[in-house]
């Protein structure tokens, strides 16, 4: 007469956790398999049937069924294995982090891995592993630009406000320019490579046609870009560009323009153009210093 394994008992909370593990895509595969074994056994299926359905051996099903019966969910985790304990564990990590809070050795502006390793009597590779795990970079360089414009805070607030909360019944344009674009004429065609494939290529020689200047305006709400190229970068060219932009915009909307305070867009030009076109509101920004 065949023997039957005793019926398993499981609380609703443990069963819910087993279901979560069995469907997880982030847990280790071994834990997912163990959860599925236990769930199948909880349904009352025989060990042989569970092994056949999950394509594992009978001893594997019997092992994890017995472990769950004795220890519950804790029984699905691996037991501690014999062997040498880790040399650099949690205690070493805490020592490294505590040392970094202290003053570095004389002659050093900051701690580095060799000096930390020397102080702790460890290898620098062990120190680096701890630092990487904690996301600590002892020699990372950071830089930033500080504006010299006394009105920077007010202008920055105006610009951020225009982007985040545009005025009602108004359009916001972000205007910039790209001067000295090389206008090159270069022949293109199709060539056959050594492998026999046909590819599109550019001829190595080209003809120069001087330089061009590009004015562009981005309509913040829609992403539409207005552009125009000119031979030179002058005040009159920029005013003609704005004339072309306003001709394409609705006549019943106020227009807010964000632009830099340098190059072709001088304050005198802006004030003169604004006096002729009352719908325009200019907000200036100073570009960051170079270097």
Average pLDDT for all residues: 80
Structural class: alpha/beta
Strand content: 15-25%
What oligomeric state do the depicted chains represent? single chain
Spans of 5+ residues with little confidence (pLDDT < 50)? Answer: none
How many DSSP E strands? Answer: 7
Q: Major sheet: order of its strands? A: 5-4-1-6-7
Largest sheet: 5 strands, mixed
Using the alpha-carbon principal axes, give the shape: elongated
Query: Gyration radius, to the nearest Å?
Result: 35 Å
State the distance separating the first and last CA atoms.
Answer: 88 Å
Chain-wise SSE layout:
Elements: H1 12-23, H2 29-42, H3 47-54, H4 58-71, H5 90-100, H6 113-120, H7 124-134, H8 152-164, E1 170-185, E2 188-192, E3 198-202, E4 207-219, E5 225-230, H9 235-248, E6 254-260, H10 267-276, E7 280-285
Parallel strand pairs: 1-6, 6-7
Antiparallel strand pairs: 1-4, 2-3, 4-5
Helix pairs in contact: 1-2, 2-3, 2-4, 3-4, 6-7
How would you describe this protein?
- The chain is α/β, with parallel strands linked by helices.
- It has ten helices and seven strands.
- Strand 6, helix 10 (267-276) and strand 7 form a beta-alpha-beta unit.
- Helix 2 runs antiparallel to helix 3, helix 2 packs across helix 4 and helix 3 (47-54) packs across helix 4.
- It is elongated, with a radius of gyration of 35 Å.
- It starts with 11 loop residues before the first helix and ends in a 6-residue tail after the last strand.
